[in-house]
Write a structure and sequence with these properties.
Blueprint (H helix, E strand, L loop, with lengths): L2 E2 L2 H9 L4 E4 L3 H6 L6 E2 L5 H8 L6 E6 L3 H12 L4 E7 L16
Parallel strand pairs: 1-5, 2-3, 2-4, 4-5
């Protein structure tokens, strides 16, 4: 079972380059606001596009969505595809750090 990760632990890993965030929301949600440097892999495309978007199955990937429901589903799918180092970051709504995108203070 994949571990949950706190925002504080996640930001340290992201800032040090030891992990990459993976946003499993839809492209329009990603455009509104996402964690800087996050790769977009919508939940509905995980099975078909994971190898293309996340080529290293042994890298540390921090998976998130809006509230945490889709990230948990995506983590299960990625594990089934052979990904070995995943963390469920939950929802961006609880992310207290910098967000980049076209948002105007709302999600």
């Amino acid at each position: 079972m994949t571990e949950k990760i706190t925002a504080a632990d996640a930001i340290r890993l992201l800032d040090s380059g030891k992990a990459v965030a993976v946003d499993v929301r839809e492209p329009d949600e990603y455009a509104v606001g996402h964690i800087p440097g996050a790769k977009l892999l919508p939940l509905g495309q995980v099975t078909d596009r994971a190898a293309e978007v996340l080529p290293d199955k042994n890298a540390l990937w921090l998976v998130y969505c809006r509230t945490g429901r889709r990230s948990a589903d995506a983590v299960q799918k990625l594990e089934a595809l052979g990904y070995t180092d995943l963390r469920d970051l939950g929802g961006i709504l609880s992310w207290p750090y910098e967000i980049e995108g076209d948002f105007e203070g709302h999600f």
